[in-house]
Design goal:
single chain; 4 helices; mainly alpha
Length: 106
C-alpha cells in the first residue's frame, strides 16, 4: 500500500486504477480542447475501431499502422474481443495466479 514513506508506489488494485497515476488536469485540458473542436463528431456513433485521429496518433507513437490500433472501452471489452477471436469453446487457457477473475469469466 502507498504511504507517506513510499510515494512512488503505484497500486494495481483490481478494477480501480491507481489515483496517483491519473493525470487529471491533463485529461481535463485534452477533453476540453477536443470537445470544442470536434464535439459534434465525437458524440456520434463512430467506427468500431475507435476515433481515427486518436488511432493515428497512437500508431505514430508506437510505430505501427493505424489499422493495427483498436480502441476500446476498457480491459473487459478487450478480454472478450481477444477471447472470441483466439479461443474456441472447450479449449484450455492458461492464466497467471493470482489472476483477474473477470478475465477468467470472459
Amino acid at each position: 500500500m502507498a504511504d507517506a514513506e513510499n510515494q512512488d508506489l503505484i497500486l494495481f488494485t483490481r478494477g480501480n486504477p491507481a489515483e496517483e497515476a491519473i493525470p487529471l488536469a491533463d485529461i481535463v485540458d485534452c477533453a476540453r480542447d477536443i470537445f470544442q473542436r470536434e464535439g459534434k463528431v465525437l458524440f456520434q456513433y463512430g467506427h468500431y475501431s475507435g476515433y481515427r485521429p486518436l488511432r493515428e496518433w497512437i500508431a505514430g507513437r508506437f510505430g505501427v499502422k493505424t489499422e493495427q490500433v483498436l480502441i476500446g472501452n476498457g480491459s473487459m471489452e478487450f478480454f472478450t474481443f481477444v477471447g472470441s477471436l483466439f479461443v474456441k469453446w472447450g479449449e484450455t487457457v492458461y492464466v497467471e495466479s493470482p489472476s483477474y477473475d473477470r478475465a477468467i469469466t470472459a
